[in-house]
Amino acid sequence: MRIGVDLGGTNIAVGLVDEEGRIVARGSRPTKPERGYEAIAKDIADIALELIKRSNLSVSDIKSMGIGVPGVADSEKGIVIRAVNLFWIKIPLAKEMRKYIDLPIYMDNDANVAALAEAVYGAGKGSKSSVIITLGTGVGSGFILDGKIYNGAHHFAPELGHIVIGDNGIRCNCGKIGCLETYASATALIREGKKAAEKNPDTLILKFANGDINSITAKNVIDAAKQYDEQAMRIFNDYVKYLAIGIVNVINMFDPEVIILGGGVANAGDFLIKPLKKEVAENILFKELPYADIRKAELGNDAGIIGAAILS
């Protein structure tokens, strides 16, 4: 039995995970980052100890604890190098955790641990190399190469959302212009949906948002595209082309067996994946060779807990 922790800027989610990757007990609390890392570390330990007790186990029955953090972590040193949403820089999280729970503690970026979970128990099961791309507020990514998380020489790879694919004049949160996530995130769909609704108030995008332009979501744009709304189809088709550019770059550079799409936009399922596969096929370098299959993630929000648990 292992403990997995999905540490986010809003919530701390902790799970007890068995050898088959099943979450057998879980608990959560609000993160409240303003309290500082000491209080958060204690909360993580308190939730974990409560789950152990509730499951009629003892700490000695637990092999390890893994933590997925929203930032850059050095597992060997037990340090969170930087986590912007938590306001953390060089935080000795493992050392603080061991004040409350005596377990081996492993850490990695939250997208990386989700990628590991999908590779072992989800859409990438059976493959040796896979890439997860999460399509949400931004574009997150995690690479599994030869069965192991790849996070680069300095622990911050991969940042697929920040490869520059053009110059759309839109400044990314990182400060650069032209990052993939300014084209291929849910935020990009929302931005373009609002622009379309301002110019074309009869679009279904606005109707699906109950007439409130500020309430437009990525789902509104996708649902309108499914109904053949002209504006929504234009936005969605452009979105697919931009996402395909990112995926083609990944395939050309790393040649993974599987590419897994997660996050809210991926809930569009085949409506997204079918045209995306077509666009990728038209732009791939070696068309005569087999290349990565594109699939929807299977584990949903549980991937963070499961992946963290199996970090050891």
UniProtKB/TrEMBL annotation:
InterPro entries: ATPase_NBD (IPR043129), ROK (IPR000600), ROK_cs (IPR049874), ROK_glcA (IPR004654). It comes from the Bacteria. GO terms for biological process: glycolytic process. It is an enzyme of class 2 (transferase). Pfam families: ROK. The keyword Nucleotidyltransferase does not apply. Its EC number is 2.7.1.2. GO terms for cellular component: cytoplasm. Coiled coil: none annotated. Keywords: ATP-binding, Kinase, Nucleotide-binding, Transferase. PROSITE patterns: ROK. CDD domains: ASKHA_NBD_ROK_FnNanK-like. GO terms for molecular function: ATP binding; glucokinase activity. Belongs to the ROK (NagC/XylR) family. PANTHER family: BIFUNCTIONAL UDP-N-ACETYLGLUCOSAMINE 2-EPIMERASE_N-ACETYLMANNOSAMINE KINASE, ROK (REPRESSOR, ORF, KINASE) FAMILY. This is Glucokinase. It comes from Thermoanaerobacter kivui.
